[in-house]
Amino acid sequence: MSATQFRKAIASQLSRITSCPESQLLGLLGTPKTALKQQFGIPIPRLKSQRDPTEWSNELAHKFQPDNLIQEASAKGPFLHFSVRPTEYIKQTLLQVHNEQSKFGCHIADTPHTVVLDYSSPNIAKPFHAGHLRSTILGNFVKRIHQAMGYPVVGINYLGDWGKQYGLLAVGFAKYGDESLLEKDPIHHLYNIYVKINSELTEQVDREANEYFKRMEEGDPVALKQWKRFRDLSIDSYTSVYKRLGIEFERYSGESETEPYIQPLYNLLQSKNLIHTTDDGAWTVDLSAYDLGSPVVRRADGTSLYLTRDLANLILRQSPQKSMYIVGTEQSLYMQQMFKIAELASLATNMHHVNFGRVQGMSTRKGTVVFLQDILDTAQEQMLKNLKENPTKYNELLTLGVQQGDQHWVGKEAVDQVADQLGTSAVIVQDLIAKRVKNYSFSYDRMTAARGYTGVYLQYTHARMCAIERKANTPITPDCDFSLLEEKEAFELALTVSQFPDIVKSSYQSMEPCVVVHYLFRLAHVMGQANSTLRIKDADPKLAEARMLLFWAARTTLANGLKLIGINPLERI
Ligand code: ARG
Predict the structure, then answer these.
(1) Positions of CATH 3.40.50.620 in the chain
(2) Cα Rg for the chain, rounded, in angstroms?
(3) Is 107 exposed, middle or buried (0-12, 13-18, 19+ CB in 10 A)?
């Protein structure tokens, strides 16, 4: 662990000469700065001593003995700085990446409890709106960052798949349903039927819908069979779209699954004395002591609500030790109410709402009602157009094809594949580039640009590095002469690489993917600078070897970071 190793060297010596515990000092040392000198620093006032910080800092700078890792300690007012030995730092960093490869950046959890993630969660027969898009992309990040921190995860897609509207959908299907359209494109077809039947909602239709849903609730096998078919086909269709984003769920659940747990939930809430009956007969839980109002958990007519089902679902989930709900900010109050009741009823603890802002201006060529598939198709088309603007590259792609894992595409398929991956990268980076709570406006033009802060730029940087590795014909080996990496660009690049594990941790702590995204742009930028000065072609073989390991380590770090945010790094564009 390069940065860790250097921090430890500083902390252990400093602990001896200050008598402060090593762990406290380690905590203060933080992420190394990308600077030629003084990469680590400690604000002496934080050591909380009676002594004058400036005087003490000076004294410590003199007492600190340089060693094989640390070259120098120096004082600047109350700050104590440490400079690493550059060659040693580069060496330890590159060796670490070489050792850990795709695991570089990962951590080991102290208590690796399973984390349940609730994300994406669209409603069947309704549009997959911007909120679902964000929940999907963010949720995938939340999943991957937990994995990188060493936690086992269970990703659940909690579908909106129950309620009166499914009765209405069934009535609509009897009138307008088309088996072949249902098989081909269930999501659009069911939505169209739903819109149509809603627009002609007469009393008679309403009655029929209610009756149908009642049959579903009573377990009528025919009604349930049809509903299940709609649900299964929708899930199949979603699964293939999620696949384009590299997303897989451990489980498809949904509101429908909670039915058997509703009564046990009521019993539990009653046994904990949490239920209040209002004058009209509805059941509420009084959360006024927490400023959270008195949400209803059972209507006067005995039916359950969205909140009831979310709570009942916790019984099904077997009271998880940690849960993350990736849901928009507008549901904040709702989430707090749900968490509070769950806590009071000892149903679950450690529940978190990973909230996010709105997306403005999202529409596709097919119209303003947006489905995930249409968003990805539109981004793909735009990327295809951009790729065609460079005929040489385009033709190269057509003839050489692309390799991904054990799959190889050639011709038009290769181009479509690359355009799709670039399109999804664009959508993902646009979504994760700012703090979660921020709103943003959706723009296909901006997000698909090859320059600027886009996923496309990151992909090009990665692919360019892969091309250098392919063309150079220089082995990637840890047995190289690190002292040859003496330029400041090399040191800066290694330092940037060494920050990655800290970046992963801090992104996890704030649950902000933008911490990783911003880091990746910085890394790509430093890679670009190093690439323009540190040539591999025509360099002496020993020097080429050392530089190759450096670039390979940077490229591996970029790939690991891209995967963390849900992007599949491309090797050839
Ligand atoms: N289906 C809901 C919606 O579209 C989102 C579900 C979020 N998850 C949950 N457990 N409440 O708004």
Answers:
(1) 115-360
(2) 28
(3) middle
The strand pairing partners of 70, in sequence order, are 84
pLDDT tens for residues 429-446?
A: 999 999 999 999 999 999
Q: What is the reported pLDDT for 147?
A: 98
d(CA 106, CA 160): 34
Task: Tell me the C-alpha to C-alpha distance, in Å, between residue 319 and each of 147, 300, 343, 348.
Answer: 20, 28, 10, 5
Assess contact for 340 and 348: CB atoms under 8 A: no
Rounded to an integer, what distance in angstroms lies between the CA atom of residue 116 and that of residue 114? 7
In this predicted structure, the answer to whether residue 368 has a pLDDT above a threshold of 80 is: no
- Amino acid letter for position 446: R
Please name the residue whose Cα sits nearest to atom 6 of ligand 1.
121
Q: Is 310 in the pocket of ligand 1 (CB under 6 A)?
A: yes
* Ligand 1 contact, 255 CB (< 6 A): no
Task: Provide the CATH number for the domain formed by 372-564 in this structure.
Answer: 1.10.730.10
The pLDDT tens digits for 18-69 are 999 999 999 999 999 999 999 999 999 999 888 999 999 999 999 999 999 9
Q: How far is Cα 211 from Cα 205, in angstroms, rounded to an integer?
A: 10
Topology (CATH level 3) of domain 2-84: Gyrase A; domain 2 (3.30.1360)
DSSP H stretches of helix in 42-163: 53-63, 86-100, 130-148
Distance of CA 324 from the midpoint of ligand 1 (Å)? 12
CA dist 560 to 117, 144, 152, 526, Å? 22, 11, 18, 17
CA distance 6 to 82: 10
The domain defined by 115-360 folds into Rossmann fold (3.40.50)
Where exactly does CATH 3.30.1360.70 map onto the chain?
A: 2-84
**CA dihedral for 98, 104, 110, 115, sign (positive or negative):** negative
Strand, coil or helix: what is 566?
coil
What would you measure as the largest C-alpha separation in the chain, in angstroms? 90
Residues of the chain with CATH 1.10.730.10: 372-564
Q: What is the pTM of this model?
A: 0.95
Spatial separation of the C-alpha atoms in residues 275 and 295, rounded to whole Å:
10
In whole angstroms, what is the distance from residue 169 CA to residue 177 CA? 10
Q: How far apart are the CA of 329 and the centre of ligand 1, in A?
A: 12
Token pair listed for 58: 């000076």
Q: How far is the CA of 241 from the centre of ligand 1 (A)?
A: 19
Q: Treating both helix axes as pointing N-terminal to C-terminal, what angle do 2-18 and 53-63 enclose, rounded to 10 degrees?
A: 110
